[in-house]
Amino acid sequence: xxxxxxxxxxxxxxxxxxxxxxxxxxxxxxxxxxxxxxxxxxxxxxxxxxxxxxxxxxxxxxxxxxxxxxxxxxxxxxxxxxxxxxxxxxxxxxxxxxxxxxxxxxxxxxxxxxxxxxxxxxxxxxxxxxxxxxxxxxxxxxxxxxxxxxxxxxxxxxxxxxxxxxxxxxxxxxxxxxxxxxxxxxxxxxxxxxxxxxxxxxxxxxxxxxxxxxxxxxxxxxxxxxxxxxxxxxxxxxxxxxxxxxxxxxxxxxxxxxxxxxxxxxxxxxxxxxxxxxxxxxxxxxxxxxxxxxxxxxxxxxxxxxxxxxxxxxxxxxxxxxxxxxxxxxxxxxxxxxxxxxxxxxxxxxxxxxxxxxxxxxxxxxxxxxxxxxxxxxxxxxxxxxxxxxxxxxxxxxxxxxxxxxxxxxxxxxxxxxxxxxxxxxxxxxxxxxxxxxxxxxxxxxxxxxxxxxxxxxxxxxxxxxxxxxxxxxxxxxxxxxxxxxxxxxxxxxxxxxxxxxxxxxxxxxxxxxxxxxxxxxxxxxxxxxxxxxxxxxxx
Length: 540
Known about the structure:
Blueprint: E1 4-8, H1 9-19, E2 25-27, H2 34-43, E3 47-49, H3 53-67, E4 71-75, H4 79-83, H5 85-94, E5 98-104, H6 121-124, E6 130-133, H7 140-152, E7 159-164, H8 165-169, E8 171-175, H9 189-201, E9 205-209, H10 211-215, H11 219-229, E10 233-235, H12 255-261, E11 264-268, E12 285-289, H13 310-318, H14 328-349, H15 358-368, E13 374-378, H16 381-389, E14 398-399, H17 410-420, E15 426-431, H18 432-438, H19 442-447, E16 453-458, H20 463-473, H21 487-493, E17 497-501, H22 507-516, E18 521-526
Parallel strand pairs: 2-3, 2-4, 4-5, 5-7, 6-7, 9-10, 9-11, 11-12, 13-14, 13-15, 15-16, 16-18, 17-18
Antiparallel strand pairs: 1-8
Helix pairs in contact: 1-2, 1-7, 3-5, 3-17, 11-13, 14-15, 15-16, 15-22
């Protein structure tokens, strides 16, 4: 028998949200969405508020990514929605199942110039899987349930609903739709067998596993496939930690050697974008494994491209019954390269030089981060070092902006991570440029007693722009920030704590104080502006 719900639009929405496993609301207060707050208040439903709407959406995305369930952001009409669009777009590129509920000016006065009157749908439709205006209270449970089902159906992604004022404030009576988990997408068995044969028969195969492996709960299946076929594994995004660093098939430092020497490159759960040379690996054949047919690359022609539930595909790889080449020599070659790179990295992470080199910060962090710590990257140059020097020990412990590359995720991600994992270390790695986007939301963390550690790599420049521009033109413009700026004082003014570190030997004690503080704590590390992360441009 269908459960019936009676109440105003907020009550009806909350009932559908809870049925789908939503457990909290992130928002910035706005009158257009008061009924949603009223419903949360009456039900004791957790509500977290921020100082900029982008942080609400980023917090919801962090929950969605870490917990593999829907995250919810509630934004008021007009500028509330437009302020959240960068967060929506990041969620779209990251395949994060986020639901944004927006307020909307009253429909009965549409066109008369109501406060914040704007049609949001044309703006959000290109960066969501579904966008809809719900015009009656009775229709809200249906719309919320359908939107969340769409968000969770591979290829996952954000969805958007807005409610005109009279719809969300009105009282309605509606049935609560039954929740049906999305059915797994069955892959083409012939395509799966073709891919498995290519991998097993290759002399020098390599796996690159990305975020969808974690999102699709396929971590164990990945390990089983890699171990069965004896293939070295590299990871990116939330695929990091899928194999623990000590696993004999886990690699991180020898990627260049691997991709240069591989004869088959298997990319699983991540697009063939700029991070992977757009799928061009020289003479190597490419196997692209995706969670839905829509994610097959259109700009390259892989040798095989299985599409469907990643657990089913990887399980079939593990069970492959055909012939297999011996990969022992290839694995040993990569391990030699990996060990040599680790030795070079160890020297850099122990550098005693002042000004401090960014690598030294990560050397000290490796000593204090727990295996289950959630590490968040928000920045360009400084966070590039994090990808090189930090090796997550467990899956679901790494958050970065993803391929959209949007700065400002830090404080929202930190809020979502702290809500998701109240007892873990939460560490935000932030460039001083990125600090300008969201640091005010430290106040939200302080006020709601959500402690995190923020490490700012402060070199006083936009590092990924200043050095390349100088190389191209012989000069740079719009690439300088205030050197030595006291971001720790900003956090102190907002109710947190912090300190500035100028000497490498002071880093360890400062980080110890930060993780022991129990409040939002910013370690402001003055780094060498001449020490830029060495990488070529991927703007093409």
